[in-house]
Design goal:
Elements lengths: L7 H6 L2 E3 L4 E3 L10 E3 L5 E3 H10 L6 E4 L12 E4 L1 H10 L19 H13 L4 H8 L3 H8 L9
Antiparallel strand pairs: 1-2, 3-4, 5-6
């Protein structure tokens, strides 16, 4: 007899690790570390947006933004609804704009030059897939691919 499917809310809570500050998403993540979960229609949604909806009801028009600057955080106390303009202003204030390079780039996630070097070294050594490296370093396989092929983090040796 097959197991009954768990609800989206049950699946959400099974992937949340609460700390004293942030509630960390331990499930799948996008290339920048934002939690991702599929709804009953197999449509992917952001875990932090789902957290907002669980705790506050339907999300009004706009984006769900973080106050803690931690993409894996789903703590509703660290989330607020804002506009694209607010999000862009926030990126500038936190110095995470695309004009920056390396770890200061807007989509750099949590990677540092040291971690990028480690990814490249491990991959060149062989015996590990890009997907496995992605899981180990908390980024998507596509991010690892861009790092090892130097289309991302080009300046890092």
């Amino acid at each position: 007899m097959p197991y009954p499917k768990r609800s989206l809310v049950d699946r959400f809570w099974s992937k949340v690790q609460k700390t004293d500050t942030c509630w960390l998403w331990t499930g799948g993540k996008d290339s920048c570390g934002y939690g991702a979960i599929k709804d009953s229609d197999k449509k992917q949604m952001s875990a932090h947006r789902l957290s907002w909806e669980i705790h506050n009801g339907c999300t009004p028009a706009g984006l769900v933004l973080h106050t803690c600057d931690n993409p894996a955080c789903v703590n509703p106390l660290h989330l607020y609804v804002g506009t694209h303009e607010q999000n862009m202003r926030d990126k500038v204030l936190r110095d995470r704009t695309a004009r920056n390079r390396g770890m200061r780039a807007g989509r750099a996630c949590h990677l540092t030059e040291t971690l990028v070097r480690a990814i490249r070294t491990r991959y060149v050594r062989g015996g590990i897939s890009q997907a496995a490296l992605g899981r180990e370093f908390g980024v998507a396989q596509s991010t690892v691919m861009r790092i090892v092929h130097r289309s991302a983090w080009k300046e890092t040796v």
